[in-house]
Amino acid sequence: ESLKNYDKHAFLLGDILPRFIEEIGDGIDFVVLDTVHAMPGEILDFLCILPMMKDGGMVCIHDTANNLIGKYKDAYCTKILLDAVSGEKYYDFSSDTVNIGGFIVTEATRKNIANVFSSLSITWKYEPPLTELMKYRDWYKLHYDDECISLFDCFWQMNHDVIMRDLRINGRV
User: Fold this and answer.
1) Cα dihedral angle (81, 12, 15, 82), rounded to 10 degrees?
2) Are 53 and 138 spatial neighbours (Cβ–Cβ below 8 Å)?
């Protein structure tokens, strides 16, 4: 309520980003990604947001070293995104509480986006429900080329197989 332009802000809660992205609209110039930090979390959301971002827009990522300084050893999704994306990058690992990074979206970010899709090959900590993954995939299909969609499909299937295998080994399926 202390924001001077509060009427220009909205909290869109209770669902995944593909359900809100068209409502948010294009021309996004600043994004803070701070979600689960585990694969595939921020990767999925960044790939959803990128088509709506302006070149020159800033993406700020929190907990980029959380796997090293926090209690969650699997919390490396933000660092993988920061490493995989092309763009002018900023880092601050000066303290346990800061560990923040960011990058500027440029033409190179878009040109080399297959690198971010490829990062989905890193083992996923969790698998979102099929209905959610399909919403992400449907959005990606509108905005990315066949190579990127093939990478998404391949690494989604491979991670699904690994997750199911681990569940069987642990007697959960």
Assistant:
1) 0
2) no
Please report which helix (H) or strand (E) contains residue 101, including its range. strand 100-104
Mean pLDDT (whole number) for 95-115: 88
φ/ψ bin of 119: left (φ > 0), alpha (ψ from -120 to 50), beta (otherwise): alpha
Find the length of the chain: 173
Least Cα distance to 153 among 173, 168, 138 occurs for 138
CB 115 within 8 A of CB 127: no
DSSP 40: T
**What is the token pair recorded at 130?**
């099929």
How much is the average pLDDT of 121-127?
95
* Beta pairing partners, 171: none
